[in-house]
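Exercise: predict the fold of this chain.
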Amino acid sequence: MLKSKKNKFNPKNSAELGQRFKMQLDQAKAQFEQMEFESKSEDGGVSVVVTGRREIKHLYIAPEFFSEKREQLESIITSVVNEGLIVVREANKQLTDEVTRKFNEQLGMAAR
């Protein structure tokens, strides 16, 4: 719940505040989309780099994995890619929470 430190909120300016928040969030998300996140299998034989746009930028498979059974390799790759996407999703959530927190601080609002 938010608690007002100073009552700076004016309903007449809510549209302007909403636009300001959206602008700050859009700027932060644009920077986030340029970030890269890496996920690796436990043994490091398979790794993936996923961008903030949730696109695979790089996939690495160690040569010894090519002698593995196809189904096992596909399972490992799927697992590593899904873990990379989870990392991006969590980082995006943290970014949104941080922008919201900073915006609320600018308004003189603090989480209780």
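Check your answer against the key: The chain has a mean pLDDT of 83.
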